[in-house]
Design a protein that fits this description.
It holds the Pfam family DmmA-like_C. It comes from Corynebacterium variabile. This is Dimethylamine monooxygenase subunit DmmA-like C-terminal domain-containing protein. The structure is a single chain. It contains 4 helices and 10 strands; from the N terminus they run H-E-H-E-E-H-E-H-E-E-E-E-E-E. It is α/β, with parallel strands linked by helices and 200 residues long. The chain has 2 domains: 104 residues, 3-Layer(aba) Sandwich (Rossmann fold), CATH 3.40.50; 55 residues. Strand 1, helix 2 and strand 2 form a beta-alpha-beta unit. The chain starts with a helix and ends in a 7-residue tail after the last strand. The N terminus is likely disordered.
Length: 200
């Protein structure tokens, strides 16, 4: 038997990039306890969910999560909630939430992943969370990304990057390759020395 082109074609590279729905996922209406988290970059999913919930007679708790404006790669300080206003309030609300809460999150990918990580840390289940990201790394567009340096363990927030490109680490100043690998529980992409393979 002769191998066909389909049999011998290389597999696409392995990736752990989140795949986001292009439309907001449906509301989980099995609970009347709903929380809507609107991050920077929400492009209407929040309004869509809000209208849907109100049509069902549900008024959700609402939290706004915002990031400071970043124009160059910036070092994120550990334990500082990545500079996001609203995230400490969200954590307090999640810590006192009742069983059955459903979470709806929308905005830029790095903020959505950060909110999801906080919710999971507070004990929520993935099945209780609906999310949509408006600026995902998988899009191929230059978007804000958090890059974890495998060398100094610093987190760098790049205002415009793409997996497969480079960013300067704000911790150790190495030029990092941004790998198509996301640690969802930490809401960050993996970066490693872009010059490590170069022969000198």
């Amino acid at each position: 038997m002769t191998a066909t082109t389909a049999d011998t074609a290389p597999a696409p590279p392995a990736t752990s990039l989140p795949r986001w729905s292009e439309t907001p996922p449906p509301v989980d209406d099995t609970s009347s306890e709903q929380m809507l988290v609107l991050c920077d970059g929400d492009d209407g999913a929040g309004d869509h969910w809000l209208r849907d919930l109100r049509a069902r007679g549900i008024e959700p708790l609402q939290v706004r999560v915002r990031a400071p404006r970043v124009t160059t790669p910036a070092l994120l300080r550990p334990g500082a909630d990545r500079g996001l206003t609203g995230l400490p309030q969200l954590r307090r609300m999640l810590d006192t939430a009742t069983v059955g809460l459903r979470l709806l999150v929308t905005g830029t990918e790095w903020q959505v992943l950060t909110v999801i990580a906080a919710a999971l840390e507070a004990g929520m289940l993935r099945s209780e969370i609906r999310a949509v990201a408006t600026a995902p790394g998988i899009s191929g567009d230059a978007v804000p990304l958090i890059v974890f340096c495998a060398h100094c363990e610093a987190e760098t927030l790049s205002p415009a990057a793409t997996p497969g490109t480079t960013v300067r680490c704000a911790g150790c100043a190495r030029l990092l390759d941004i790998h198509p690998h996301v640690n969802s529980s930490q809401a960050r992409y993996l970066g490693s020395d872009a010059t490590a393979g170069a022969l000198t």
